[in-house]
Structure formats: structure tokens, C-alpha cells
Amino acid sequence: MNKFITTIKNIFAIEDLRTRIFNTLFFIAIYRLGSFVVLPGVDSTRLKQGSEGVFGILDTLLGGAFSNASIFALGIMPYISASIVLQLLTIAVPYFQKLQKEGESGRKKINQYTRILTIPIVLAQSVGFIATINADAIINPSTFFTISTMMIITAGTLFCMWLGEKITDKGIGNGISMIIMIGIVSRLPGAIVGEALAKGMRGSLIFLIEAVVLFLVVMGVIILTQAVRRIPVQYAKQVGGTTQLNAQRQFIPLKVNAAGVMPIIFAQSLMFVPAILASVWQADSETASYIGQKFSDYTSWQYNLVFATLIIVFTYFYTAISVNPNQIADDLKRSGGFVPGVKPGRDTSEHMDEVLTRITLPGAIALALIAIFPAFALLAGVTRPFSAFYGGTSLIIMVGVVLDTLNQVESYLLMRHYDGMMKTGKLRGRSTQDVAMAS
After folding, report:
1. Does the structure show a pLDDT above 90 at 26?
2. The last residue of a domain, from among 161, 186, 211
3. Residue 244 to residues 134, 237, 337: CA-CA distances in angstroms?
4. Is the distance from CB of 281 to CB of 288 less than 8 angstroms?
5. Same domain for 166 and 206
6. Given a cut of 80, is residue 301 above it in pLDDT?
7. For this UniProt entry, which segments traverse the membrane (predicted)?
């Protein structure tokens, strides 16, 4: 406990870190306040209490903004969808491939295109959202209401984008992921209380078992997030003036889940699209009605099969674009390093790619299983709000963002010669001998 108190004091002793923490809390507070501002022309007392199925998952990611019909009803999700499209374009279109290789200037242009593409996406998704609002909650249904609501929701999403970028620049952690995580965390206390009340005194043992299972699942997610395969790297002897440096053996850490939370976010942002489209056209087609029914129920095998498949595909996809074996091999060759038993250059690149492919498969499968675990928890008798935290998007995003934020805080502490968040001065999974991995 003394160690924890000392660490907190050290954190707030650093002026820059203290300012960034307060900035982050300020921007988060603005986002949470906006989640409760109801759209003009909507009677909040007549809104449905909560959402089910895929809309319930979306509502959890948005911290209740979806079911509240707030100005942040779609939150940051259209921006995530635009990011998916741009990531695909960087593979298929030579122009975007060139931009990706231009470094910082190219990334800025890609980010600008992502922002522009977000506008038509949020306009399209806002039409589907309006269709999900129960008719008696709309005070005066009209064309003007539809158009004005589309504009307000679009402005709300753009404002959420701005908040995310401000958190990244002026605060702690990745702003976009932080906004999603805060929406999730805001639902956790109510979910725990609701589960405890549902079980009552007679079900206290069951509730305790559920808490233990949740703890084990969290530990599993942390292990998956931190697991690495270390590739040994040998550096030849170097002579500097009259000093001869002995050969050094270091490691390149290849993460088992190099894609992090992005495959879950990408897959989830696509999973609610069929349900929204089906809700608009289900009156005209039995097929649309069937799709809407199955993809609105995240316990259905159809939903979980597609969801798991998308996660595996996106894990490979995002790993391929975030980890470049060719660049790692070139950097090693230029610095005089080599993998023992492997020729520098092309052979090293192929070796890295082979190892990355092998470790990504179990990582992708584990990620998919964790993502669909809430469906099994719900079928086992856990209440719907609490089951969302037994894995899936909610838990993986929470763990990933928290670990990333802790890494950033620890970096500030170590730069100021303070102890890190752990007694060893570093988070488990990191090594002072690890070589920075190029991406």
C-alpha cells in the first residue's frame, strides 16, 4: 500500500504528467455530459429503457448515448468505420500505398481523408439510427426532423473525433480508444449492482463464482495482451576509436496479439450495420427480417460465427499493416545485427514473417473466443448488462487501453528517475533488452 501511495505522489509530482491527467479528465467529462444531451425533438421520457442485441453492445461502447438518443448517439464509431475503409485502400490503391510510405506527412494526409470520409458514413448511419427511435418518442416526425437530426449527429461525431485527438495530444493514452473505454466503464458499476440485486442473498454464492470467473477472464486477456515471442538478435563486435565493444545479444519482441484491440473495434463497427439496414427494410423482405433478427441477437450462432471470423481476418490484416518484417530486417542489417542461424536481409525478413504468421493464428483464435464469451455468459444465467464484461469488446478494450495508459505513465516516471508502476520499474512483458520493433 505504501508503494502505491508513493507512486501516486510521484505521478502528481511531475508537472507535465499532472497537467495531462487533468486535461484527460476534463475532456472525458465533456464527452460524458454530451452523452446525456437528448436530441431536439425527442421526448426522453418515452425512449426505450436500454437496448438489446447488437444495439445493446453498441450502447455499451457508447456509454448509453445510443439508448439516450443523445447528440453523441453514434459517438466515434463512424470514424472507426472510415479508418477501416482507409486501411483497406492502403492495400488496394497505389496512391494510398505511396502515402503510407511517406512517413509523418503521409499519415497526416491519410488522417485527413479519414476525417472527410467519416462525414458521409455518419450521415448514412444516422438514417438507420433515426429508424431505431420508437415513433412515440419523436414529438413531430417530419422531413425537417430527419435532416436536422442527421446534421446534429454528424456534428456530435465530429466533436467526439476532436475530443479524441485532443486527448492524444494534450492528455494520456490514445484518445479514440480512451473515449470508447470511458463509455464502457461508465456502465460497469450499474451492471455489477444489477447482477447483485438479481441474484439476491440466496444467490450470493453464484455471484461470487461469477466474480471469480470474471477475474480469471481478465487475467487471460492481460496474458494475451502482454504475451510476446522474443526473437534473439546478435550484434557483431564494434570498434569505436581505441575502444572495442563486445558482441551483444538482444531480442526483438513479436507480440502474439500485435493488433491489440483494433480487430475487435473493426469487427464490432461492421456487425451492427446488417441489423441497422434490416431494421430499415425488414418490412419489404423476409430475408431482411431474418438477418435483422439473427444479427440483433449476439447469442445466435450466426452472429458469433461471423463476428469471430471477422476478428480473425482483421487480426491478420492489422498485424500485416502494423508489423513490417522487411523493415525490421533492413533495420537490423543497417545496425549490424542478425538473427543467429539466419542470413541477413531477405532470409531474415522471411523468418520474421513465418514466426509472426505462426504466433498470430493462436492469438487471433484466442481473441475471437474472448470476444464471443459474453454470449456464453448470458446463456449461463448472467444478466445481459453484466455479461458484456465477460470478454468481448468491452473487456478487451478496457484491458488494452488501461495497459497502454499505464505504459505511458510509467514512461514519464522512468524519465524522471522515479520507480515505475511495478516494483521492478517496468510492466511485466517488457524487457530492457528488447529491441524496439519497427512498424
Report:
1. yes
2. 186
3. 76, 7, 16
4. yes
5. no
6. yes
7. 21-42, 71-96, 117-139, 145-164, 176-198, 204-224, 258-281, 301-319, 359-382, 388-406
- Greatest Cα pair distance, the chain, in angstroms, is 85
Report the DSSP pairing between strands 228-235 and 248-255: antiparallel
C-alpha cell, 57: 453492445
Average pLDDT over residues 394-416: 81
What own/partner pairs with CB < 8 Å and gap ≥ 24 does 7-16 have?
7/413, 7/418, 7/419, 7/421, 10/413, 10/416, 10/418, 10/419, 11/409, 11/412, 11/413, 13/416, 13/418, 14/412, 14/413, 14/416, 14/418, 16/412
Average pLDDT, stretch 64-75? 81
Cα–Cα distance measured from residue 408 to residue 106, given in angstroms and rounded to the nearest whole number = 25
Q: Give CA–CA dist 329/233, Å, rounded.
A: 11
User: What is the rounded CA–CA span in Å between residue 231 and residue 302?
Assistant: 39
* Cβ–Cβ < 8 Å for 93, 242: no
Residue 110 lies inside a defined structural domain of this protein: yes
Contact 33/3 with Cβ under 8 angstroms? no
Strand partners, 239: 244
CA distance 195 to 131: 31
Find the CATH number of the domain harbouring 148.
Answer: 1.10.3370.10
Residue 156 CB contacts under 8 Å (≥ 6 apart), including other chains: 34, 70, 71, 72, 73, 74, 75
Distance CA 106, CA 100 (A): 5
Distance of alpha carbon 300 from its chain centroid, rounded? 23
Q: How far apart are the first and last CA of the chain?
A: 38
pLDDT of residue 48: 66
Could you read off the pLDDT of 126-182 as tens digits, one per residue?
A: 888 888 787 777 888 888 888 999 999 999 999 999 999 899 888 888 888 888 888
Task: Please spell the DSSP secondary structure of 14-33, one letter per residue.
Answer: SHHHHHHHHHHHHHHHHHHH
Q: Is residue 1 situated within a structural domain? A: no
